[in-house]
Recover the amino acids of this structure.
């Protein structure tokens, strides 16, 4: 409304038929008049030719000094130090001569400093000429005059500059020494802090001056940029006596624009470090480069959608921070996808690429969808905020994350396939010596590369042991301690956030929106020192009364673009408004009288003829003499309320008369009537001063707004039809910001949590897992926000966004663990927890580490947005990883769902294939995995925990053994599957989903229990559905046919009775043996006792093929007869030289004995290395045994 009020605007203070005349009267003559007044004022203030040209004010550049050692600034050393710093840092700059104000061409005006004022009061020529006695004398004058300043009798114009004496009319009660040159007033008002010689401090001599202001005779603004950059930016701001702690050059936002670009080097460094970590983890430069291209493409595509599809025109600088967040999310997705890809590739080394991609996406795409959708939803939830910058940032960042997800499930798998097909050996540098060619230089680089490979292998080995052995043990063994600890942290965080000290609302005005770190001198001036000096407190309204402005005739509707702060929309007028009717005149006059009687209205002694125009108009009409005919009917003969035509005519004359008689020019903010182009009154504005003082405290402003608004709403209920749609407004911009931040942040967080829970539930279809994930998110948010509160954060615009985004970022790790828990093939809680930790632990830890490092790299930045984002990213990653790994997993271990517990029933067509297969692969609790944990069934079928941390490393490891298998281990270390080797059971066609568990390193129960004797160089086919290929060893059947059966053969008492039905009487007992074939055909070595073996390890002397399990019925008698019938098979091939140290293969037998019914039935599930016996076949003789980890 203010912008649409004025000459030739929608509304005007004057009738338009007088507009041209008034424009000539009030605009053209003002230029010479203003110029004359300016020159006159400068001449008046030039009371000493060597000193000040003008009075200090807000338009001049200024700095704040404090003592370097915390001492009193009121000392001759400190006062001269301030003068010296002014000369050295400001006045000596090459640009100062062109910027300073001057009274002549020879010299610039002096600065307003304490030293110069002391020199004036003691007739000294300059600041450097003052003495200790002058300082003491000035202090005495200040002490005696302080009471006159604080009680308001000492004003800014008590000294008559023309007569060079005290103005007797204005300051009669003030001593002359306090009014001389108005210097005492200016010292108190501009140069010293408000606590110096205050009424309270006068009782405690000697007075202490903590801060002092220095004004430079240069206009603040962009012209001061070079002075700051050259003399203040990289200076330590101290000379040992005084320190420059605050600066106001008027260049804060201009400097911010420069820093915003120059400080992008810190996010760039963070991105480079993330890429290096990603390159080391994925061991592929190609995948890393393609990932960053996908991330950048996400930002570009989202910008296109933001501008062209969503039609957003406003692009706040906060949108740039989406790059850092997207790099962390993209790295997280890349780690998960590559990890699942490598697991799938080693589970099924001979599978087609299409099958590998399908299995990988079945898990990875599901996890990435949940994390991406929930994070994007957290950003989109910011759209409910009333703050435009927050809305725009939420839409842009949420869109970028969704586009990134689409690329991660389309672009990145294609990149991995290309890398697998065409670039598997590009970055392999370790080759056998007989394959190395070239000069010594090439061999030198190859040696360095091999050493680097060994170092990386060591790190990989330590990481593998930690995530597959140590971490599950720590989580499971100490689960009750972790639950208690994290619950206590959650309660403590909730107390800090909600009770004490609470998340505080912003304490700085919109004009002083913080953009640099709190220690920056520009921010310190706005946050700390502005409120310490009286002229700033008065200028910014801290000691001014809040206005109460009531408007009729304009509809309070914002029809501008809510997503573009530059689009204010059009002014909507109220067609029912009518102030000219007699009823409206009476009501508005009574309204003004009632308003003045309210307790919240300030009663002023000064004549106020603009607050309520109807009162002034009525008084003017009553004072008009009707003797002249030209005056009628606008005179005292007309009786209030006036007729409508009389009111419309006379109000125009009254306004013009007011302007001519009082020389009071009406502007767009002046209360009163508003006319349209036809001279019709279309709106009125009333304004009163309230008893409430302006403050940044939200509670006081809330009380003011509610009290005044409630009273006005009640009065408007009885208003006539023409005045029934009035509304109240005041200087509530900052209060509105605080209110929007308070409500919008809570709503955004609630929406984010609701969406996260919904997506998790719709993805897993398990209520318990989703509930645990939300509890983990809640704990993460409380602890994170509580930490930010203790760090001094206030709920400003950027803080509001980061806190609401905390939901989206904290859900990622819990979702990854939750999805892995649901996809685990084990039927029991502990097995599922171990599976999720071992499968997802390293990828999640790397994602948290990279995001943490990215945040840490942004901390040196000067821009507050970067430092706050970096701090937030470090906190949220650490806390989120800890809650997901320890709190969420411990809840799953204690009360996690098993089987269909907590599962939402759905038709099979709607069920996720991955979850369907997982559920079907766990038919009963009796089926146990051969993972890190071992289980027993008690007599009641209950679960008994037998978890122990197995040996983590071999007791003996020599460099020779590391070197022998370097070729094969290099391939494995670079995650290239040994396709050129024959893999046992690589061509098994599983008849059902139970058998697929072997592909994941778990016990697979074969549907046909076969009675086979192992020997060399023969093959055994147990039924048509199961083809067993053994290389170089094969098994020969005891009988020609092994009839298939649909019955399963797990390790349990219940199935022990099945054995006699298929057992030949020649067998005395039956053994269930799990045979693990590890050693390839061409590379075989002795395995050290107790050596941990995993497919991903790829050490030179370890076994690297997947483990498979077969149930056999071992023969105990008549072995000699079988050998006599097969002499050639018994002889076997010649082991060749070195057979004692290098065997042809390896079989690790973990034996589960099942007694027959005629003996005591017991089941031994303790897996121990089984020594090969002659009766078990000659294959056992050619394989060296070693105790091997069965966790995979």
């Amino acid at each position: 409304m203010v912008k649409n009020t004025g000459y030739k605007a929608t509304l005007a203070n004057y009738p338009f038929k007088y507009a041209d005349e008034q424009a000539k009267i009030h605009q053209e003559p003002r230029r010479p008049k203003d110029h004359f007044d300016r020159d006159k004022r400068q001449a008046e203030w030039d009371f000493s030719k060597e000193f000040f040209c003008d009075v200090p004010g807000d338009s001049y550049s200024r700095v704040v000094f404090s003592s370097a050692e915390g001492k009193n600034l009121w000392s001759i050393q400190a006062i001269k130090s301030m003068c010296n710093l002014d000369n050295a840092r400001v006045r000596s700059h090459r640009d100062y001569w062109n910027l300073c104000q001057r009274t002549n061409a020879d010299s610039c005006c002096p600065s307003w400093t304490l030293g110069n004022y002391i020199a004036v009061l003691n007739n000294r020529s300059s600041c450097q000429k003052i003495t200790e006695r002058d300082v003491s004398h000035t202090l005495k004058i200040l002490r005696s005059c302080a009471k006159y300043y604080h009680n308001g009798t000492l004003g800014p114009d008590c000294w008559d500059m023309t007569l060079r004496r005290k103005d007797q009319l204005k300051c009669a009660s003030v001593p002359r020494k306090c009014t001389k040159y108005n210097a005492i007033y200016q010292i108190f008002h501009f140069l010293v802090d408000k606590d110096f010689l205050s009424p309270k401090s006068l009782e405690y001599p000697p007075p202490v001056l903590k801060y002092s202001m220095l004004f430079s005779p240069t206009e603040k603004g962009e012209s001061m940029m070079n002075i700051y950059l050259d003399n203040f930016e990289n200076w330590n701001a101290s000379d040992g006596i005084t320190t420059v702690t605050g600066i106001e050059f008027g260049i804060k936002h201009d400097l911010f624009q420069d820093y915003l670009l120059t400080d992008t080097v810190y996010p760039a460094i963070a991105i480079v470090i993330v890429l290096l970590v990603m390159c080391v983890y994925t061991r592929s430069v190609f995948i890393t480069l393609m990932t960053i291209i996908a991330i950048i493409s996400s930002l570009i595509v989202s910008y296109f959608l933001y501008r062209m599809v969503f039609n957003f025109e406003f692009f706040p600088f906060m949108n740039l921070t989406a790059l850092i967040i997207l790099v962390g999310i993209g790295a997280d997705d890349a780690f998960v996808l590559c990890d699942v890809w490598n697991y799938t590739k080693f589970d099924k080394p001979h599978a087609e690429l299409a099958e590998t991609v399908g299995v990988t996406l079945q898990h990875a795409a599901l996890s990435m969808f949940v994390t991406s959708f929930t994070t994007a939803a957290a950003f989109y939830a910011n759209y409910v905020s009333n703050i435009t910058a927050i809305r725009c940032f939420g839409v842009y960042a949420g869109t970028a994350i969704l586009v990134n997800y689409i690329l991660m499930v389309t672009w990145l798998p294609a990149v991995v396939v290309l890398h697998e097909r065409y670039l598997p050996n590009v970055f392999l540098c370790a080759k056998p010596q007989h394959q190395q060619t070239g000069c010594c230089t090439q061999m030198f680089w190859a040696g360095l590369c091999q050493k680097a490979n060994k170092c990386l292998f060591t790190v990989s080995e330590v990481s593998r042991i930690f995530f597959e052995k140590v971490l599950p043990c720590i989580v499971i063994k100490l689960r009750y301690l972790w639950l208690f600890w994290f619950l206590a942290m959650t309660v403590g965080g909730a107390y800090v956030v909600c009770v004490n000290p609470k998340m505080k609302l912003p304490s700085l005005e919109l004009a002083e929106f913080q953009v640099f770190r709190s220690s920056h001198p520009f921010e310190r001036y706005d946050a700390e020192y502005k409120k310490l000096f009286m002229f700033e407190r008065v200028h910014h309204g801290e000691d001014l009364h809040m206005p109460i402005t009531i408007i009729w005739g304009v509809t309070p509707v914002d029809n501008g673009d809510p997503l573009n702060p530059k689009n204010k929309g059009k002014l909507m007028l109220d067609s029912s408004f009518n102030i000219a009717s007699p009823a409206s005149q009476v009501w508005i006059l009574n309204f003004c009288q009632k308003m003045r009687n309210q307790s919240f209205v300030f009663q002023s002694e000064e004549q106020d003829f603009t607050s309520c125009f109807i009162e002034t108009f009525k008084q003017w009409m009553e004072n008009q003499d009707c003797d002249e005919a030209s005056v009628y009917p606008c005179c005292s003969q007309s009786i209030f309320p006036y007729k409508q035509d009389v009111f419309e005519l006379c109000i125009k004359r009254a306004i013009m008369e007011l302007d001519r008689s009082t020389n009071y020019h009406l502007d767009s903010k002046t209360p009163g009537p508003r006319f349209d182009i036809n001279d019709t009154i279309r709106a009125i504005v009333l304004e009163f001063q309230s008893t409430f003082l302006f403050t940044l405290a939200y509670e006081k402003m809330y009380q003011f707004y509610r009290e005044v608004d409630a009273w006005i709403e009640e009065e408007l209920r009885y208003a006539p039809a023409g005045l029934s749609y009035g509304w109240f407004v005041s200087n509530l911009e900052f209060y509105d910001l605080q209110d929007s931040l308070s409500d919008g942040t809570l709503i955004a967080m609630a929406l984010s949590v609701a969406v996260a829970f919904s997506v998790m539930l719709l993805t897993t279809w398990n209520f318990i897992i989703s509930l645990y994930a939300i509890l983990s998110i809640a704990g993460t948010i409380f602890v994170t926000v509580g930490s930010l509160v203790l760090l001094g954060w206030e709920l400003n615009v950027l803080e509001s966004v980061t806190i609401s985004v905390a939901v989206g970022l904290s859900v990622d790790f819990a979702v990854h663990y939750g999805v892995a828990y649901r996809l685990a093939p084990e039927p029991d809680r502990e097995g599922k927890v171990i599976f999720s930790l071992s499968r997802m632990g390293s990828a999640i830890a790397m994602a948290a580490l990279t995001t943490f490092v990215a945040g840490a790299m942004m901390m040196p930045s000067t821009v507050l947005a970067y430092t706050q984002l970096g701090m937030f990213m470090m906190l949220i990653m650490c806390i989120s990883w800890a809650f997901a790994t320890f709190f969420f997993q411990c809840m799953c271990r204690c009360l996690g769902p098993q089987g269909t517990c907590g599962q939402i029933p759905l038709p099979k067509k709607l069920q996720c294939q991955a979850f369907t297969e997982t559920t079907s692969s766990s038919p009963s609790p009796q089926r146990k995995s051969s993972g890190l944990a071992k289980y027993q069934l008690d007599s009641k079928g209950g679960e008994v925990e037998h978890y122990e941390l197995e040996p983590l490393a071999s007791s003996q490891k020599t460099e020779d053994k590391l070197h022998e298998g370097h070729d094969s281990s290099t391939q494995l270390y670079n995650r290239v599957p040994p396709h050129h080797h024959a893999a046992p059971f690589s061509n098994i066609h599983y008849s059902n989903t139970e058998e697929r568990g072997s592909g994941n390193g778990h016990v697979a129960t074969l549907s046909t229990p076969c009675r086979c004797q192992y020997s060399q160089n023969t093959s055994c086919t147990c039924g048509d559905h199961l083809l067993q290929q053994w290389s170089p060893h094969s098994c020969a059947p005891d009988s020609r046919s092994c009839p298939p059966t649909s019955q399963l053969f797990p390790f349990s008492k219940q199935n022990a009775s099945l054995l006699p039905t298929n057992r030949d009487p020649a067998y005395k007992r039956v053994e269930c043996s799990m045979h693990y074939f590890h050693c390839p055909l061409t590379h075989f070595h002795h395995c050290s006792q107790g050596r941990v073996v995993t497919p991903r390890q790829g050490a030179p002397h370890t076994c690297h093929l997947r483990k498979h399990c077969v149930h056999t019925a071992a023969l105990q008698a008549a072995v000699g007869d079988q050998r006599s019938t097969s002499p050639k098979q018994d002889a076997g091939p010649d082991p060749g030289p070195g057979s004692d140290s290098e065997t042809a293969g390896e079989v690790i037998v973990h034996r589960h004995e099942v007694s027959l019914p005629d003996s005591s039935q017991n089941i031994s599930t303790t897996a121990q290395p089984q020594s090969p016996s002659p009766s078990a076949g000659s294959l056992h003789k050619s394989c060296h045994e070693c105790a091997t980890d069965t966790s995979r």
